[in-house]
Automatic annotation (TrEMBL), chain A:
Pfam families: ATP_bind_1
Keyword terms: ATP-binding, GTP-binding, Hydrolase, Nucleotide-binding
One term of GO molecular function: hydrolase activity
PANTHER family associated with the record: ATP/GTP-BINDING PROTEIN-RELATED (PTHR42708), GLIDING MOTILITY PROTEIN MGLA (PTHR42708:SF1)
Organism taxonomic ancestry: Bacteria, Bacillati, Actinomycetota, Actinomycetes, Kitasatosporales
Matches recorded under InterPro entries: Gliding_Motility_GTPase (IPR052705), Gpn (IPR004130), P-loop_NTPase (IPR027417)
Protein name: ATP-binding protein
Domain of life from the UniProt record: Bacteria
Family membership: Belongs to the GPN-loop GTPase family.
TrEMBL record, chain B:
InterPro entries on file: DUF742
Species whose genome carries this gene: Streptomyces echinoruber
Pfam families in the record: DUF742
The name this protein goes by in its record: DUF742 domain-containing protein
Annotated PANTHER family: DUF742 DOMAIN-CONTAINING PROTEIN
Length: 205, 117
Protein backbone atom coordinates (compact mmCIF):
# COMPACT_ATOMS: atom_id res chain seq x y z
CA UNK A 1 0.00 0.00 0.00
CA UNK A 2 0.97 3.63 0.06
CA UNK A 3 2.45 6.02 -2.40
CA UNK A 4 6.14 6.18 -3.15
CA UNK A 5 6.46 9.12 -0.78
CA UNK A 6 5.27 7.11 2.21
CA UNK A 7 8.16 4.66 1.71
CA UNK A 8 10.62 7.33 2.81
CA UNK A 9 12.09 6.55 6.22
CA UNK A 10 11.52 10.10 7.38
CA UNK A 11 10.95 10.33 11.11
CA UNK A 12 8.06 12.43 12.17
CA UNK A 13 8.52 14.91 14.94
CA UNK A 14 6.67 13.40 17.89
CA UNK A 15 3.86 15.26 19.61
CA UNK A 16 4.50 16.94 22.93
CA UNK A 17 4.14 14.55 25.86
CA UNK A 18 1.27 16.65 27.21
CA UNK A 19 -0.72 16.30 23.95
CA UNK A 20 -4.14 15.04 24.98
CA UNK A 21 -6.77 16.10 22.45
CA UNK A 22 -6.94 14.91 18.86
CA UNK A 23 -9.39 16.64 16.53
CA UNK A 24 -10.27 15.95 12.93
CA UNK A 25 -11.38 17.75 9.83
CA UNK A 26 -12.09 15.87 6.63
CA UNK A 27 -11.40 17.16 3.14
CA UNK A 28 -13.65 15.42 0.65
CA UNK A 29 -13.48 15.52 -3.10
CA UNK A 30 -13.08 13.51 -6.26
CA UNK A 31 -9.80 12.11 -7.55
CA UNK A 32 -7.29 14.79 -8.52
CA UNK A 33 -9.21 17.69 -7.03
CA UNK A 34 -6.26 18.66 -4.82
CA UNK A 35 -6.99 17.04 -1.44
CA UNK A 36 -3.47 15.77 -0.83
CA UNK A 37 -2.04 19.06 -2.07
CA UNK A 38 -4.17 21.00 0.41
CA UNK A 39 -3.24 18.68 3.27
CA UNK A 40 0.44 18.98 2.38
CA UNK A 41 0.35 22.77 2.19
CA UNK A 42 -0.85 23.17 5.78
CA UNK A 43 0.46 20.03 7.48
CA UNK A 44 3.49 19.93 9.77
CA UNK A 45 4.22 16.39 8.56
CA UNK A 46 4.52 15.00 5.08
CA UNK A 47 1.07 13.53 4.33
CA UNK A 48 0.89 9.90 5.38
CA UNK A 49 -1.19 7.27 3.71
CA UNK A 50 -3.25 4.64 5.40
CA UNK A 51 -6.23 2.44 4.76
CA UNK A 52 -9.16 0.69 6.25
CA UNK A 53 -10.42 -2.71 5.23
CA UNK A 54 -13.87 -3.99 5.54
CA UNK A 55 -13.91 -7.72 5.71
CA UNK A 56 -17.26 -9.37 5.61
CA UNK A 57 -16.42 -12.70 7.13
CA UNK A 58 -18.94 -15.45 6.77
CA UNK A 59 -20.45 -13.91 3.69
CA UNK A 60 -20.62 -16.39 0.86
CA UNK A 61 -19.51 -19.56 2.59
CA UNK A 62 -18.81 -22.02 -0.15
CA UNK A 63 -21.37 -24.78 0.31
CA UNK A 64 -19.30 -27.46 -1.38
CA UNK A 65 -15.94 -26.91 0.28
CA UNK A 66 -17.09 -25.28 3.50
CA UNK A 67 -14.31 -22.74 3.04
CA UNK A 68 -15.23 -19.38 4.40
CA UNK A 69 -15.14 -16.83 1.62
CA UNK A 70 -14.41 -13.30 2.68
CA UNK A 71 -14.98 -10.19 0.69
CA UNK A 72 -12.60 -7.43 1.50
CA UNK A 73 -13.10 -3.83 0.57
CA UNK A 74 -10.22 -1.44 1.05
CA UNK A 75 -10.39 2.33 1.17
CA UNK A 76 -7.23 4.39 1.27
CA UNK A 77 -6.91 7.91 2.56
CA UNK A 78 -4.16 10.27 3.55
CA UNK A 79 -3.75 12.69 6.38
CA UNK A 80 -1.64 15.46 7.79
CA UNK A 81 -1.32 17.08 11.17
CA UNK A 82 -1.32 20.55 12.70
CA UNK A 83 -0.32 21.02 16.33
CA UNK A 84 -2.63 23.83 17.44
CA UNK A 85 -0.85 24.09 20.77
CA UNK A 86 1.00 21.69 23.07
CA UNK A 87 -2.16 19.92 24.14
CA UNK A 88 -4.34 19.98 21.04
CA UNK A 89 -3.58 18.53 17.63
CA UNK A 90 -5.71 18.74 14.52
CA UNK A 91 -5.64 15.94 11.97
CA UNK A 92 -6.66 16.66 8.39
CA UNK A 93 -7.93 13.78 6.33
CA UNK A 94 -8.11 13.68 2.57
CA UNK A 95 -10.98 11.39 1.66
CA UNK A 96 -12.14 10.36 -1.77
CA UNK A 97 -15.83 10.93 -2.20
CA UNK A 98 -16.61 7.60 -3.83
CA UNK A 99 -19.47 5.45 -2.76
CA UNK A 100 -17.73 2.65 -0.89
CA UNK A 101 -15.99 5.27 1.17
CA UNK A 102 -19.21 6.58 2.66
CA UNK A 103 -19.91 3.14 3.87
CA UNK A 104 -17.04 3.62 6.31
CA UNK A 105 -17.74 7.24 7.17
CA UNK A 106 -19.06 6.58 10.66
CA UNK A 107 -16.28 4.20 11.51
CA UNK A 108 -13.61 6.64 10.41
CA UNK A 109 -15.02 10.11 10.78
CA UNK A 110 -17.73 10.19 13.40
CA UNK A 111 -17.02 13.10 15.70
CA UNK A 112 -15.28 15.10 12.97
CA UNK A 113 -15.48 18.85 13.60
CA UNK A 114 -16.56 19.45 10.04
CA UNK A 115 -15.65 18.94 6.41
CA UNK A 116 -14.32 20.83 3.44
CA UNK A 117 -15.79 19.83 0.09
CA UNK A 118 -13.06 20.54 -2.42
CA UNK A 119 -14.48 21.33 -5.84
CA UNK A 120 -12.88 21.29 -9.26
CA UNK A 121 -15.15 23.27 -11.60
CA UNK A 122 -14.11 21.09 -14.51
CA UNK A 123 -15.64 18.08 -12.76
CA UNK A 124 -18.38 19.51 -10.65
CA UNK A 125 -20.49 16.35 -10.79
CA UNK A 126 -18.07 14.69 -8.38
CA UNK A 127 -19.13 17.14 -5.67
CA UNK A 128 -22.83 16.36 -5.71
CA UNK A 129 -22.57 13.06 -4.01
CA UNK A 130 -20.23 14.33 -1.29
CA UNK A 131 -22.54 17.22 -0.45
CA UNK A 132 -25.52 14.90 -0.33
CA UNK A 133 -23.76 12.45 1.99
CA UNK A 134 -22.47 15.15 4.34
CA UNK A 135 -25.97 16.58 4.64
CA UNK A 136 -27.23 13.07 5.31
CA UNK A 137 -24.67 12.57 8.08
CA UNK A 138 -25.36 16.00 9.54
CA UNK A 139 -21.72 17.01 9.17
CA UNK A 140 -21.29 20.77 8.79
CA UNK A 141 -19.16 21.75 5.82
CA UNK A 142 -17.87 24.55 3.63
CA UNK A 143 -17.20 24.38 -0.10
CA UNK A 144 -13.74 25.35 -1.34
CA UNK A 145 -13.24 25.82 -5.06
CA UNK A 146 -9.74 24.81 -6.03
CA UNK A 147 -8.86 27.00 -8.98
CA UNK A 148 -6.84 25.31 -11.69
CA UNK A 149 -5.11 27.42 -14.32
CA UNK A 150 -6.72 25.59 -17.22
CA UNK A 151 -10.34 26.15 -16.27
CA UNK A 152 -12.09 26.67 -19.60
CA UNK A 153 -14.46 29.21 -18.07
CA UNK A 154 -13.97 30.83 -14.72
CA UNK A 155 -17.29 30.48 -12.93
CA UNK A 156 -18.07 32.80 -10.06
CA UNK A 157 -18.76 31.39 -6.62
CA UNK A 158 -22.42 32.38 -7.04
CA UNK A 159 -22.67 30.41 -10.26
CA UNK A 160 -21.06 27.41 -8.58
CA UNK A 161 -23.42 27.74 -5.62
CA UNK A 162 -26.36 27.60 -8.00
CA UNK A 163 -24.94 24.69 -9.96
CA UNK A 164 -24.48 22.73 -6.74
CA UNK A 165 -27.89 23.82 -5.38
CA UNK A 166 -26.14 24.93 -2.20
CA UNK A 167 -28.11 26.79 0.40
CA UNK A 168 -27.04 30.34 1.28
CA UNK A 169 -25.95 29.10 4.72
CA UNK A 170 -23.04 27.08 3.32
CA UNK A 171 -19.88 29.21 3.15
CA UNK A 172 -17.94 29.10 -0.10
CA UNK A 173 -14.36 30.08 -0.66
CA UNK A 174 -11.87 30.19 -3.53
CA UNK A 175 -8.55 28.53 -2.97
CA UNK A 176 -5.27 27.43 -4.41
CA UNK A 177 -4.52 24.17 -2.63
CA UNK A 178 -0.81 24.58 -3.34
CA UNK A 179 -0.55 27.74 -1.29
CA UNK A 180 -0.25 27.45 2.47
CA UNK A 181 -1.96 30.77 3.23
CA UNK A 182 -4.84 29.74 1.01
CA UNK A 183 -5.20 26.35 2.66
CA UNK A 184 -5.09 28.01 6.04
CA UNK A 185 -7.83 30.40 4.94
CA UNK A 186 -10.03 27.46 3.90
CA UNK A 187 -9.64 25.86 7.33
CA UNK A 188 -10.36 29.12 9.13
CA UNK A 189 -13.48 29.61 6.99
CA UNK A 190 -14.69 26.19 8.09
CA UNK A 191 -13.93 26.68 11.78
CA UNK A 192 -15.48 30.18 11.73
CA UNK A 193 -18.61 28.56 10.33
CA UNK A 194 -18.54 25.84 13.01
CA UNK A 195 -18.10 28.50 15.64
CA UNK A 196 -21.17 30.40 14.41
CA UNK A 197 -23.18 27.16 14.46
CA UNK A 198 -22.04 26.38 17.99
CA UNK A 199 -22.82 29.92 19.16
CA UNK A 200 -26.35 29.68 17.78
CA UNK A 201 -26.79 26.27 19.38
CA UNK A 202 -25.54 27.42 22.76
CA UNK A 203 -27.78 30.52 22.62
CA UNK A 204 -30.89 28.37 22.28
CA UNK A 205 -30.01 25.70 24.83
CA UNK B 1 13.28 -2.21 9.66
CA UNK B 2 9.93 -3.83 10.25
CA UNK B 3 8.66 -5.82 7.37
CA UNK B 4 5.51 -4.24 6.00
CA UNK B 5 2.50 -6.43 6.31
CA UNK B 6 0.71 -7.15 3.09
CA UNK B 7 -2.52 -5.44 3.91
CA UNK B 8 -4.16 -6.63 0.73
CA UNK B 9 -4.20 -10.20 1.98
CA UNK B 10 -7.04 -10.96 4.39
CA UNK B 11 -5.34 -14.16 5.56
CA UNK B 12 -2.29 -12.20 6.62
CA UNK B 13 -4.49 -9.82 8.61
CA UNK B 14 -6.15 -12.82 10.14
CA UNK B 15 -2.73 -13.97 11.36
CA UNK B 16 -1.71 -10.60 12.82
CA UNK B 17 -4.92 -10.37 14.81
CA UNK B 18 -5.08 -14.03 15.79
CA UNK B 19 -8.21 -14.51 13.77
CA UNK B 20 -10.21 -11.72 15.31
CA UNK B 21 -12.05 -9.22 13.18
CA UNK B 22 -13.98 -7.24 15.77
CA UNK B 23 -12.11 -4.09 16.62
CA UNK B 24 -12.35 -2.02 19.76
CA UNK B 25 -14.22 0.96 18.39
CA UNK B 26 -13.53 3.08 21.44
CA UNK B 27 -10.27 3.87 19.66
CA UNK B 28 -10.98 6.84 17.47
CA UNK B 29 -8.69 7.64 14.53
CA UNK B 30 -7.32 10.54 16.58
CA UNK B 31 -7.22 8.88 19.98
CA UNK B 32 -3.71 9.55 21.28
CA UNK B 33 -1.98 6.43 22.54
CA UNK B 34 0.86 6.44 25.07
CA UNK B 35 3.03 3.46 26.04
CA UNK B 36 3.13 2.63 29.71
CA UNK B 37 6.01 0.15 29.43
CA UNK B 38 8.85 -0.96 27.22
CA UNK B 39 8.41 -3.85 24.80
CA UNK B 40 9.38 -7.19 26.32
CA UNK B 41 10.95 -10.28 24.79
CA UNK B 42 8.47 -12.64 23.19
CA UNK B 43 5.90 -9.97 22.37
CA UNK B 44 4.18 -10.05 19.01
CA UNK B 45 6.17 -7.77 16.67
CA UNK B 46 3.19 -5.50 15.99
CA UNK B 47 2.75 -4.94 19.73
CA UNK B 48 6.44 -4.10 19.96
CA UNK B 49 6.07 -1.67 17.09
CA UNK B 50 3.18 0.12 18.79
CA UNK B 51 4.97 0.37 22.15
CA UNK B 52 8.04 1.84 20.45
CA UNK B 53 6.02 4.34 18.45
CA UNK B 54 3.92 5.45 21.41
CA UNK B 55 6.76 6.49 23.71
CA UNK B 56 5.32 9.88 22.78
CA UNK B 57 1.58 10.37 22.26
CA UNK B 58 0.67 9.00 18.84
CA UNK B 59 -2.68 9.01 17.11
CA UNK B 60 -4.25 5.71 16.09
CA UNK B 61 -4.15 6.78 12.44
CA UNK B 62 -0.41 7.51 12.67
CA UNK B 63 0.20 4.09 14.17
CA UNK B 64 -1.70 2.54 11.28
CA UNK B 65 0.29 4.51 8.71
CA UNK B 66 3.67 3.79 10.31
CA UNK B 67 2.98 0.08 10.80
CA UNK B 68 1.21 -0.17 7.46
CA UNK B 69 -1.74 -1.91 8.95
CA UNK B 70 -5.42 -1.18 8.36
CA UNK B 71 -7.20 0.81 11.05
CA UNK B 72 -9.28 -2.18 12.12
CA UNK B 73 -6.21 -4.28 12.77
CA UNK B 74 -4.57 -1.51 14.78
CA UNK B 75 -7.72 -1.13 16.87
CA UNK B 76 -7.62 -4.84 17.68
CA UNK B 77 -3.95 -4.71 18.65
CA UNK B 78 -4.52 -1.60 20.78
CA UNK B 79 -7.38 -3.35 22.56
CA UNK B 80 -4.93 -6.12 23.56
CA UNK B 81 -2.37 -3.64 24.87
CA UNK B 82 -4.97 -1.61 26.73
CA UNK B 83 -6.41 -4.71 28.40
CA UNK B 84 -2.89 -5.66 29.48
CA UNK B 85 -2.26 -2.19 30.93
CA UNK B 86 0.62 -1.59 28.51
CA UNK B 87 -0.81 1.59 27.00
CA UNK B 88 -3.13 4.40 27.97
CA UNK B 89 -5.50 6.15 25.59
CA UNK B 90 -6.43 9.83 25.43
CA UNK B 91 -9.73 9.87 23.61
CA UNK B 92 -11.02 12.91 21.69
CA UNK B 93 -13.84 14.91 23.25
CA UNK B 94 -16.12 14.75 20.22
CA UNK B 95 -15.90 11.09 19.32
CA UNK B 96 -18.41 9.56 21.67
CA UNK B 97 -21.44 10.24 19.55
CA UNK B 98 -22.25 12.05 16.36
CA UNK B 99 -24.54 14.27 18.40
CA UNK B 100 -21.87 15.69 20.70
CA UNK B 101 -20.95 18.70 18.63
CA UNK B 102 -17.92 20.77 19.53
CA UNK B 103 -18.54 23.72 21.84
CA UNK B 104 -17.48 27.32 21.28
CA UNK B 105 -14.58 27.09 23.74
CA UNK B 106 -12.97 24.25 21.80
CA UNK B 107 -13.59 25.93 18.44
CA UNK B 108 -12.09 29.16 19.72
CA UNK B 109 -8.97 27.23 20.65
CA UNK B 110 -8.86 25.71 17.15
CA UNK B 111 -9.30 29.12 15.51
CA UNK B 112 -6.56 30.59 17.62
CA UNK B 113 -4.21 27.78 16.67
CA UNK B 114 -5.00 28.07 12.98
CA UNK B 115 -4.64 31.86 12.93
CA UNK B 116 -1.18 31.63 14.41
CA UNK B 117 0.00 29.09 11.83
N1 LIG C 1 -2.92 24.44 -11.02
C1 LIG C 1 -3.21 23.85 -9.89
N2 LIG C 1 -2.90 22.56 -9.73
C2 LIG C 1 -3.21 21.94 -8.56
C3 LIG C 1 -3.89 22.64 -7.53
N3 LIG C 1 -4.12 21.77 -6.52
C4 LIG C 1 -3.62 20.58 -6.90
N4 LIG C 1 -3.04 20.68 -8.12
C5 LIG C 1 -2.41 19.59 -8.87
O1 LIG C 1 -3.41 18.65 -9.20
C6 LIG C 1 -2.92 17.32 -9.10
C7 LIG C 1 -3.80 16.48 -8.19
O2 LIG C 1 -3.72 16.96 -6.87
P1 LIG C 1 -3.83 15.98 -5.61
O3 LIG C 1 -3.64 16.84 -4.40
O4 LIG C 1 -2.94 14.81 -5.74
O5 LIG C 1 -5.34 15.50 -5.71
P2 LIG C 1 -6.16 14.47 -4.82
O6 LIG C 1 -6.38 13.27 -5.66
O7 LIG C 1 -7.46 15.16 -4.54
O8 LIG C 1 -5.38 14.19 -3.58
C8 LIG C 1 -1.48 17.45 -8.59
O9 LIG C 1 -0.64 17.30 -9.69
C9 LIG C 1 -1.43 18.84 -8.02
O10 LIG C 1 -0.14 19.38 -8.11
C10 LIG C 1 -4.21 24.03 -7.73
O11 LIG C 1 -4.77 24.69 -6.89
N5 LIG C 1 -3.84 24.56 -8.93
MG1 LIG D 1 -4.68 12.33 -2.92
Amino acid sequence: MGSAASELPTRRAPLADVAETGLKIVIVGGFGVGKTTLVRSVSEIRPLNTEEVMTQAGVGVDETTGVRAKTTTTVAFDFGRISLNERTVLYLFGAPGQERFWFLWDRLFSGTLGAVVLVDTRRMDDSWYAIDRLEHHGTPFVVAVNRFDDEPVRHSLDEIRQALALGAHVPMVDCDARVRASGKHVLITLVDHLYELALAREATS
Amino acid sequence: MRRPVDTGDPDRLYTVTGGRSRADTTFDLVTLVVSECEPAAGMQSEHVGILELCRHPTAVVEIAAELRLPITVVRILLGDLLAAGKITARHPPTARSAASLPDTALLKEVLHGLRSL
